[in-house]
Amino acid sequence: MDRQGSSNSAEASTGHTVPAGLAVARRVLDGIAWLCMLAAGLGLVFIVASFGWLVYGRYILNNTPTWIEQLSLLLIIYIVCLGTAVGVHRHTHLSIDFVRDGLPRWPRRILHVLADLMVVAFGVIMLWQGWVLTLTNADHQLPMLGVTASWRAAPLVLCGALIVVFTVFDFIERLFTNPGELH
């Protein structure tokens, strides 16, 4: 069943009928984006709480928990990468599209497709280079944490993959929700 309660198709904001599979995929991707933001939010809450513990340990107990700084650096990478992927999904990244939107229909469509291709290319490169970095750092340990340095590069792989999936889905969805326009 889709957003409108119909089991066969969804009605997009443009009034075009969308295959039910796209509506289901949209809900799944929205759920993935929500889980990414939940994980990023929980990571941020943990960082704030752990720095409270760091200050307490350093100034009250006179025993600084040194692992907190390394873990916080690791968590920041996850928070930023997850937030970046969700920003692509929600279209909340900075974009200067008034030039494109002021053009006639065909140049506007071409520029939108080119922008999507560049975002997908960026995601693929991020995924690929993140994977290479993950494999390269498999033998190195993060100080004070006891895990491999691959944990620092793994979010790049996840972020790149999510950027590709979100962008490709948005392109496909635009083809069905507004066939005359790719925007």
From TrEMBL:
The keyword Transcription regulation does not apply. GO terms for cellular component: plasma membrane. Signal peptide: none annotated. GO terms for molecular function: transmembrane transporter activity. It comes from the Bacteria. The chain crosses the membrane at residues 32-55, 67-89, 110-131, 151-172. It is a multi-pass membrane protein. Pfam families: DctQ (PF04290). One of its GO terms (biological process) is C4-dicarboxylate transport. It is found in: Cell inner membrane. Residues 48-175 form the Tripartite ATP-independent periplasmic transporters DctQ component domain. Its main location: membrane. Keywords: Cell inner membrane, Cell membrane, Membrane, Transmembrane, Transmembrane helix, Transport. The complex comprises the extracytoplasmic solute receptor protein and the two transmembrane proteins. Belongs to the TRAP transporter small permease family. Part of the tripartite ATP-independent periplasmic (TRAP) transport system. This is TRAP transporter small permease protein. It comes from Salinisphaera hydrothermalis (strain C41B8).
